[in-house]
Input
Amino acid sequence: MELAGLACAQTLATVYGKEKYPKVLVCCGPGNQGGDGLVAARHLGMFGYKPTIYMPKPGSKDIYQRLRKQCVNMDIPIIPPLTSTEELPRALQSSNVILDAIFGFSFKPPVRAPFDDALKLISASGLPIVSVDIPSGWDVERGNAQGVGLNPDVLVSLTAPKEGVKYFTGRHFLGGRFVPKAMQEKFELNLPDYPGFDQIVELPRNPKM
Output
């Protein structure tokens, strides 16, 4: 999770420099996807960005609570869950870019409260969006078939691209430089080489469908 979150932060920083996009709204769900977002928020703070965390349903796992505490220790603002519905529009207005770490590859529709309204507000904000692993609201195999998911500008796939991202046409990065060679060979992942010491590598764009 630490390396995955670092890859997410590096992807956002690569596309959206802190001089023009200093304020990042990190939107976290209650699962591992949200944990990646919390790690990314911490690294973005280390990079010199000013992240704010939107987390209406904090995860219950111990690791999630520890990651949240690390963000608190870095003085990263966290919107209180009880006021998140009212505060999200204001947070969007004061942000420059969004890191979407709400739903992961295990998501199954429908989108339930409070995230149903949140996805609509995020989409309507017009802000650039960087999604983690798969855009929130997308099916891991069928993409945004339900039409309720986000349409990000940038996607960072973790470990390997998921089937559903074949429908994604924005800038696409691969992150998570931690897959053992044995696993790559076993599942025939055919992953590209990472440049230098980078945690990410940009992939060719899919043609618009």
Notes: The chain has one domain: 1-202. Helices lie at 2-15, 32-47, 62-73, 84-93, 115-124, 181-186. Strands lie at 23-28, 50-54, 78-79, 97-101, 129-132, 154-158, 171-175, 200-203. The chain has a mean pLDDT of 93.
